[in-house]
Design goal:
six-stranded mixed beta sheet; alpha/beta; 14 strands; 12 helices; Spore Coat Polysaccharide Biosynthesis Protein SpsA, Chain A; 352 residues; eight-stranded mixed beta sheet
Length: 352
């Protein structure tokens, strides 16, 4: 017999709780501030429980249970203990009668003060969701090569090619995605050998965009520029704005993961190199992206404008200098700043 399953949520974790509720078909979602398992919440769960034991899944992260059926019943000597698996305290099994007798023994406070008796099973019962990987390309010279390398390591990777406009290309990617969130890899990105799309444990809210650091091949900067991103399918499909920076505008917040996931090698020809530097330095100098820190922004801007390695490095610094001028001049004119997303206009500006 399957034991009862309850999910502990909070207002800010409701989305994760609903995801878990669909995964396990729970007996109810209970809310508690900061995901604290309190005496009153435990009593409510125990009173609702119709069987001997009940599981509590704490909605910190999206988890899946591919092989676990929630039927486990502890042997009699272990009835009074709280059971966990693989030392993962996000999933706990309680004896209903023991909780009804004295719920204070089983609270988060008891756990933190080391007064709670645990029984651990050395078995991994959870996995993390696997998200689609979508490669976005337009006319980049190395796109085919980079996609083939990505596909070799991650056969599930898909490609959206030739869609004009950053917003429309991402919308096409969202239509292609079958998962509620999806990774985007830019055409000039080379994923580093150690990065694993399926091992990103920090992922939580699809109301945010996640951005990993990339390493810039022209000036050695390491930050979110050109990095791998994780988007909400729903948010992208329903975004109809025309903001200067798509990534930081499509969701409620941007969470930067300071781990280098890829090299961004945009310096494939004069125009691509100039365009990339120009667009980025317009954003930096106009300070259009929320959360920019002045000292950090100035350092990055100065590096773009003064350092340009490689065959096309001079086009990078030239584009950066022009981008800084343009961004500073039109910092309060968003209709002008939006021109950086018009690649035909960028081509004309480069040629001029």
């Amino acid at each position: 017999m399957t034991q009862n399953i309850y999910i502990l949520s909070s207002p800010e974790h409701r989305e994760i709780a609903e995801f878990l509720d669909e995964e396990v078909i729970s007996n109810g979602i209970f809310e508690s501030e900061n995901l604290m398992l309190t005496e009153s919440v435990l009593l409510d769960m125990a009173k609702d429980c119709m069987v001997e034991f009940f599981y509590v899944i704490i909605a910190q992260e999206k988890l899946q249970f591919p092989t676990f059926n929630f039927k486990y019943k502890p042997p009699l000597p272990d009835y009074t203990r709280v059971h966990v698996w693989n030392n993962d305290i996000r999933i706990r099994l309680f004896n209903k009668e023991e909780v009804l007798k004295d719920a204070s023994k089983f609270t988060e406070e008891s756990f933190r003060s080391c007064k709670l008796a645990f029984k651990n099973a050395n078995e991994k019962i959870t996995t993390f969701p696997t998200y689609d990987i979508i490669f976005l390309s337009f006319d980049e010279p190395t796109a085919d090569e980079n996609f083939n390398q990505l596909k070799l390591r991650w056969p599930r990777a898909m490609r959206v090619n030739g869609i004009k406009g950053i917003r429309d290309a991402h919308k096409e990617a969202a239509k292609l995605a079958s998962t509620d969130m999806f990774f985007v890899v830019d055409a000039d990105a080379e994923v580093v050998p150690g990065f694993n799309f399926d091992d990103q444990h920090i992922l939580m809210h699809s109301s945010s965009v996640y951005v990993w650091h990339s390493r810039n091949s022209v000036n050695n900067l390491e930050y979110g520029y050109g990095g791998i991103k994780l988007f909400s399918k729903y948010r992208v499909l329903n975004y109809n704005g025309n903001d200067i920076d798509f990534t930081t505008s499509v969701s409620d917040g941007t969470i930067v993961i300071p781990i280098v996931a890829n090299f961004t090698k945009f310096d494939t020809d004069p125009f691509s190199t100039w365009k990339s530097a120009f667009r980025e330095c317009v954003k930096l100098s106009s300070k259009t992206i929320n959360g920019q820190f002045d000292e950090e922004t100035e350092y990055r801007l100065n590096t773009w404008c003064t350092m340009g390695k490689g065959k096309f490095g001079k086009y990078s610094t030239a584009g950066a200098i022009k981008g800084e001028e343009f961004g500073t001049t039109y910092s309060n004119q968003p209709e002008m700043l939006r021109l950086i997303n018009n690649f035909d206009w960028l081509r004309q500006k480069f040629n001029s």
